[in-house]
User: What shape does this take?
Amino acid sequence: MIDKNKISEKDFVEFGNTGYAFIKKELHSENSIKTDIFSVYGADGVLLAAFENKDSALAAIIQSGLEPISLH
Assistant: This one.
């Protein structure tokens, strides 16, 4: 994984065009039922997919040939 603290904001934005992705834990609400989901975004901020758990989200990133990046 790449550490975002070691790259510039400009470089980070450009990652969206070069095959990087990150996972964001979000709260999904539907019909008054709330559940956590793990959304996969391209480094440019485009939502690519959502999963029920982080392991599945990470596996999808890797299987798609993308490089996971950490935002923490």
